[in-house]
């Protein structure tokens, strides 16, 4: 596939992971496991860089990703590759991922990536810190929309404390207003040819002066023009010290409860958590009838305060006729994540006379865990009968109950 042609005029992403991580005690932070039970598509612990890359790869608007690795290309690229989910490295993967060695400073590293992108001529580029693994889809999409409108944009979060500007002697020079000051995040978005030209001018200036640019917005502001601002995301934290990975504490915890019941009829598939069970009857429903997945969706949406499955995927809408319930689950969980929640655990009970759930249990757990981007250890499923009582006991229906625990978290020091 000729990616040079297919990426022309589109949107690219640069992920910076070339730093020394000196405040991590000699550990390369981008290659550290993210923890919290998160795994990649091969069942391995998801790394910081893997999570950051996955967030951009999930956007259908991103055509090309360049990862900046530590200088010493072969060694740096190998380490970065081994920290990414395998699906990103297939020859026909989309978006395509390229690697480039960084330089002596962050600005030089970004300049290397932009120079590589010149051959592909994207219309816009998003530049992101590889040490920000919790960037969400909503922030990426809002940054794309804003950069197309303004040519240069950064996410900004408000300050909580009152800032002061100091003079060289350490005394307060100015009392700044919080409403006029914020903390910059990434991704920062720019029109591609203009940000490349700005970096080239910055490189020329650095040859004759002792100057250091703290981010790409400063480079743009110096050589290209004004930078627009959009609201940042509180969860889009940057990992700097080991405690940023290990000292998560809960800010808010919510429990969600979901329940669903479906008739069992002939000529329908019997689906639980995306796994088909051998049965002479299956669930009757507007979608594919996966009763367990529907209960899980209700639990997640309820805990996050986002309504229920009937509101988000109304049966009156033909769009959801015979829909794949696992795709509905991924969509619903994306909404939950965008609202700032992560899944701590999920516990489910399925009640039916037959078939027996136990032979399928591990496959169901794995299927649900993959859709929810967590380890299978976070998900459990139990099968029960109804002792021959009622419609469930007569084999006329199947019921599922799901309970989930969601956490909204932050790290110490943020």
The structural domain count equals 2
Q: Distance N terminus to C terminus? A: 43 Å
The total count of helices amounts to 13
Give me the CATH fold name of the largest domain.
Spore Coat Polysaccharide Biosynthesis Protein SpsA, Chain A
Percentage of residues assigned to helices: 25-40%
Strand portion, in percent? 25-35%
**Number of strand segments:** 17
The major β-sheet equals: 8 strands, mixed
The chain-level mean pLDDT equals 86
The CATH C-level name of the largest domain is: Alpha Beta
SS class: alpha/beta
Question: What attributes does this structure have?
Answer:
414 residues, alpha/beta, Spore Coat Polysaccharide Biosynthesis Protein SpsA, Chain A, 60s Ribosomal Protein L30, Chain: A, eight-stranded mixed sheet, 17 strands, 30% helix, 26% strand
What does this protein structure show overall?
The chain is elongated, with a radius of gyration of 25 Å. Strand 6 and strand 7 form a beta hairpin. Strands 1, 2, 3, 4, 5, 8, 9 and 10 form an eight-stranded mixed sheet that branches. A five-stranded mixed sheet has the order 14-11-17-15-16. Helix 6 packs across helix 7. The N terminus and C terminus are likely disordered. It contains 13 helices and 17 strands. The chain folds into two domains: about 240 residues, Spore Coat Polysaccharide Biosynthesis Protein SpsA, Chain A (Alpha-Beta Complex); about 160 residues, 60s Ribosomal Protein L30, Chain: A (2-Layer Sandwich), CATH 3.30.1330. With about 425 residues, it is of the alpha/beta class.
């Amino acid at each position: 596939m000729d990616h040079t042609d297919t990426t022309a005029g589109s949107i690219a992403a640069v992920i910076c992971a070339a730093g020394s991580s000196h405040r991590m005690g000699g550990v390369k932070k981008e290659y550290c496991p993210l923890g919290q039970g998160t795994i990649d598509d091969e069942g391995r612990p998801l790394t910081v860089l893997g999570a950051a890359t996955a967030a951009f790869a999930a956007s259908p608007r991103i055509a090309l990703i360049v990862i900046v690795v530590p200088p010493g290309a072969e060694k740096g690229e190998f380490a970065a590759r081994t920290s990414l989910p395998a699906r990103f490295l297939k020859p026909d993967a989309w978006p395509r991922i390229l690697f480039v060695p960084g330089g002596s400073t962050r600005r030089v590293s970004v300049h290397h990536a932009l120079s590589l992108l010149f051959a592909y001529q994207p219309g816009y580029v998003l530049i992101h810190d590889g040490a920000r693994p919790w960037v969400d889809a909503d922030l990426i999409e809002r940054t794309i929309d804003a950069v197309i409108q303004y040519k240069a944009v950064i996410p900004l979060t408000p300050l909580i404390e009152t800032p002061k500007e100091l003079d060289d002697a350490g005394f307060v020079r100015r009392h700044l207003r919080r409403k006029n000051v914020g903390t910059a995040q990434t991704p920062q978005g720019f029109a591609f040819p203009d940000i490349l030209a700005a970096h080239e001018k910055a490189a020329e200036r650095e040859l004759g002066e002792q100057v250091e640019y703290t981010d790409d917005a400063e480079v743009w502001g110096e050589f290209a023009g004004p930078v627009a601002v959009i609201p940042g995301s509180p969860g889009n934290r940057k990992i700097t010290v080991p405690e940023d990975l290990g000292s998560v504490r809960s800010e808010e915890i919510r429990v969600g409860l979901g329940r669903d019941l479906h008739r069992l009829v002939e000529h329908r598939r019997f689906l639980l958590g995306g796994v088909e069970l051998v049965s002479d009857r299956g669930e009757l429903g507007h979608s594919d009838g996966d009763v367990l997945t529907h209960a899980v969706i209700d639990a997640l949406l309820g805990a996050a305060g986002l309504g229920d499955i009937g509101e988000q995927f109304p049966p009156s809408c033909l769009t959801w006729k015979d829909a794949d319930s696992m795709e509905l689950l991924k969509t619903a969980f994306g909404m939950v994540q965008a609202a700032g929640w992560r899944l701590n655990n999920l516990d489910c009970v399925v009640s039916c006379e037959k078939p027996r759930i136990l032979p399928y249990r591990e496959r169901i757990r794995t299927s649900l865990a993959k859709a929810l981007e967590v380890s299978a250890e976070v998900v459990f499923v139990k099968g029960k009968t109804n002792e021959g009582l009622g419609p469930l006991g007569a084999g006329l229906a199947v019921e599922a109950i799901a309970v989930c625990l969601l956490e909204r978290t932050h790290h110490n020091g943020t």
